[in-house]
Design brief:
The protein is built from 17 helices and 14 strands. It is of the alpha/beta class. It folds into three domains: 62 residues; 204 residues, Rossmann fold; 79 residues, Arc Repressor Mutant, subunit A (Orthogonal Bundle), CATH 1.10.10.10. Strand 4, helix 9 and strand 5 form a beta-alpha-beta unit.
């Protein structure tokens, strides 16, 4: 076994304890020189660390078998990714406390492929007809470039996953408990929904090792991962103390886009979202707002821009002949603004031709010149 693979196994062992975070594992590595040295060190060598941590660690270590653990995961198709691995989601790496290991079923690669279109949708477990209709309309306005991430809980979470599947949009679920043999930590009524997510090429993810007990404290940890995986978080409905507000808080702390749907001032399920809006998160009233908040273009707007460019090129050819067509295509390649030298270089036309054709195109109203002497499309 290479040193690199050896060290990865020891990283996995420390991560699996669910005692040490990414930063702490790095500190241990620096202190002992390597994680292998740390794992093989006697208890006395750990005296500079917190006593309660040492006790927990050695209690875990005495009953842990790397070989048996990896065999169990393999036999149950449970994959894992370490913070130090290349396939660990980039968005998740960039939060304050990323999990050192994540366990998952399905296709984790979509978190990277669709990270610019990754959207967490969260809300109340109790939903209103208003919230359900809003959620349906918003997801119907998205397209299959998106990745919808939620928590596979009852209510808004389950609705977000279902609507995404119906819209042929990939979706992923983050659990508040472990992925076990023949068992996924979610409400029984969502078991087949979880199967659908996987069958459609999505993923189910948890930071909790198998056999981890489910506690209330697991769910805020889950919420930080939901927010951490995504470019933006959208809260549909939330009561005053809803866990969805915690997800929004984690998203804000990670400098992600936070959005909320406004609701009735008399509705209990709108108190949380309306309070978020008072804190100046982005207000969402239609799917176009989601695109704008995430800095994305709708497919319709991309097609429209393309159609407009075709029309401009056609008019340029009529006004300035082949040279006019080439120059406009050059401007499009140069992000629509350039000086004469740049246009000459990319169009490969001689300078006199460029000058005379630019004049014709300017007189025809197809391009204009700014104060810096650069040309841009009208």
């Amino acid at each position: 076994m290479s040193n690199e693979n050896n060290e990865r196994d020891f990283y996995f062992s420390f991560a699996y304890t669910d005692i040490f975070g990414v930063e702490k594992i790095e500190n241990i590595k620096q202190y002992f020189g390597s994680l292998q040295n740390a794992w093989q060190a006697e208890k006395e060598a750990w005296n500079n660390f917190k006593k309660s941590t040492i006790e927990k660690y050695f209690s875990f270590k005495n009953s842990f078998s790397l070989e048996q653990t990896k065999k169990y995961l393999s036999e149950n198709d449970i994959k894992f990714s370490l913070f130090i691995d290349q396939d660990y989601p980039e968005n998740l790496k960039n939060i304050s406390y990323p999990p050192p290991v994540i366990f998952y079923l399905g296709n984790l690669g979509i978190t990277e492929q669709q990270k610019d279109f990754s959207l967490a949708i969260v809300g109340s477990r109790k939903t209103s007809p208003y919230g359900e209709k809003v959620l349906e309309d918003l997801i119907n306005g998205l397209d299959n470039r998106f990745l919808i991430v939620s928590g596979l809980a009852l209510g808004t979470d389950a609705n977000a996953h279902r609507k995404a599947l119906q819209r042929k949009i990939k979706t992923g679920a983050v659990l508040g408990g472990p992925i076990e043999k023949n068992h996924i930590s979610c409400p029984i009524s969502n078991y087949w929904l979880a199967k659908e997510i996987l069958a459609d090429g999505g993923f189910i993810l948890s930071e909790f090792p198998p056999n981890t007990p489910i506690h209330k404290s697991n769910f805020p940890r889950r919420n930080r991962i939901i927010a951490g995986l995504c470019k933006g978080t959208l809260v549909i409905e939330a009561g005053e103390k809803s866990g969805a507000l915690k997800t929004a808080e984690y998203a804000k702390d990670a400098n992600r886009v936070v959005m909320a749907v406004p609701g009735s001032i008399y509705g209990e399920l709108s108190i949380g979202t309306n309070n978020l809006l008072k804190d100046h998160v982005d207000l969402i009233s239609d799917s176009g707002d989601i695109f704008n908040c995430l800095g994305l273009k709708t497919q319709k707007s991309i097609v429209s821009a393309s159609d407009k460019q075709v029309e401009i090129i056609k008019n340029a050819k009529i006004a300035g002949g082949t040279a006019g067509e080439i120059i406009i295509k050059s401007l499009i390649l140069l992000n629509k603004i350039a000086n004469t030298d740049e246009i000459s270089a990319i169009s490969q036309l001689d300078t006199p031709c460029v000058h005379s054709t630019l004049t014709i195109l300017e007189l025809s109203g197809i391009i204009r010149r700014n104060r810096d002497g650069q040309f841009l499309l009208v």
